[in-house]
Design brief:
By secondary structure, this protein is α/β, with parallel strands linked by helices. It has helices at about 70-80, 115-130, 145-150, 170-175, 180-200, 205-215, 250-255, 270-275, 285-310, 320-335, 345-350, 355-375, and strands at about 55-60, 85-95, 135-145, 155-160, 165, 220-225, 225-230, 240, 250, 265, 280-285. Helices cover about 40% and strands about 15% of the residues. The longest helix has 28 residues, at about 285-310.
Length: about 400
């Protein structure tokens, strides 16, 4: 049970705001339960007299791409070999920069709330697979959907300047997708249930989840013995969020004081000291693998754009169409190898997808066949069919 170190009961803490990320509404995994899980009970830490092997699992970058089921698959293969005594999930994923006045945030790098069903499954799988290994999340920065992901672990620590800020316009952006009020309310409820499921896996109260998701939700907390009791209003002894204009936001101090986090640690050594270990063996291979994975898939995305640009320069002759087909096929192979490429905003806005590219390849094959048959018959083939329709996906 978390114990408050510094209490200032009755203090009205100002609400911290986050900038909205773009929400791509896709198919909902409505079958995913949002019921609190027994996984919120974590494995006990090793004896403090031991020298534990500690694996650092990186959660760094964009939610849905850098942090995705594919990255988890790659890193967990290494984790299985390492067989650590403790797993530390290092989280650094923010939709907005710290210098908001510079207006230098890149919307393409905002986390993808539309993948929330996948996030919950990722979280559930890793918590379940390594249920016998104690797990800790160490938050360096979490703004947007990543803040809910951070609460998927019952042991949470933050660096002193870390943010745990919620989603800004989630509800309004979801509501825009459906005109019928009954359908809209059901879809908002479905999305919310899945999002709250992330928080409940970690054993945190739904009141905190609501405050991070909905601008109109308020939040306060009271303390009963060594426990915290949260309320979705301002009736508690400590008012955390009294605003109805922006979602709740926690800094490290507030998180610790309200017992949301277990403590504040600026360095890895500090974190291990708070966990009770003066000596430990740090395993950083996961961080290296994660960094390489992000580098590789982003380079692959750049290659996809280059291929599509080169395809635009091809002619509608048999030779030109053949080159275009090869470029599209290379792009398809990259997008299948790295599924996160298809989720990127700049890809989706241009209507580029594996299905669209495969359709374009089929169109090109048909046009090449048509031109060749025309040549055999001694007729001029022309080239009108090869330059339009699905042979140039996305209207590039």
């Amino acid at each position: 049970m978390r114990t408050p170190n510094r209490l200032s009961l009755g203090l009205n803490v100002s609400n911290a705001c986050s900038s909205a990320g773009a929400l791509v509404v896709g198919s909902l995994a409505l079958g995913i339960s949002a019921v609190a899980s027994a996984q919120s009970v974590d494995a006990p830490l090793p004896a403090t007299t031991s020298v534990p092997k500690v694996y650092v699992f990186p959660l760094i970058g964009q939610m849905g791409t850098d942090i995705s089921e594919t990255s988890f698959e790659v890193i967990t293969k290494d984790l299985d070999k390492a067989k650590p005594d403790i797993i530390v999930f290092r989280l650094k994923s923010a939709d907005i920069d710290r210098n908001d006045y510079l207006k230098n945030d890149n919307p393409a790098e905002f986390g993808l709330p539309g993948e929330v069903g996948t996030y919950r499954q990722m979280l559930k799988d890793v918590r379940d697979k390594y249920r016998d290994t104690p797990q800790v999340v160490w938050v360096e920065d979490a703004v947007g959907i990543s803040s809910l992901f951070a609460l998927g672990w019952p042991r949470m620590y933050m660096v002193s300047d870390a943010r745990l800020f919620g989603l800004y316009t989630f509800k309004s952006m979801v509501e825009k997708q459906w005109e019928d009020p009954d359908v809209r309310s059901k879809m908002v409820a479905a999305w919310t249930g899945i999002m709250k499921g992330l928080v409940e896996v970690g054993g945190y109260p739904s009141e905190v989840a609501d405050a991070l998701i909905f601008p109109e939700s308020r939040l306060s907390v009271s303390f009963e013995g060594r426990g915290a009791k949260w309320a979705s209003d301002t009736s508690g002894a400590w008012v955390v969020d009294s605003s109805n204009e922006a979602p709740c936001g926690f800094d490290a101090q507030l998180s610790e004081d309200t017992m949301l986090s277990d403590g504040t640690a600026d360095t890895f050594d500090d974190l291990m000291y708070l966990l009770g270990y003066r000596e430990f063996q740090k395993i950083d291979s996961g961080e290296k693998i994660g960094e390489q994975f992000v580098k590789d898939w982003r380079e692959a995305m750049a290659d996809c754009f280059k291929n599509l640009e080169d395809a635009q320069e091809t002619e509608d002759s048999v030779v030109g169409l053949g080159k275009r087909k090869n470029l599209y096929e290379k792009t398809i192979a990259l997008m299948k190898r790295y599924p996160m490429i298809e989720r990127r905003r700049e890809i989706q806005q241009q209507g580029i997808s594996v299905i669209a590219l495969e359709g374009a390849v089929d169109d090109i094959k048909k046009e090449i066949q048509r031109q060749r048959e025309a040549e055999k018959q001694g007729r001029q083939g022309g080239g009108g069919g090869g330059g339009g329709g699905m042979s140039r996906p996305g209207g590039r």
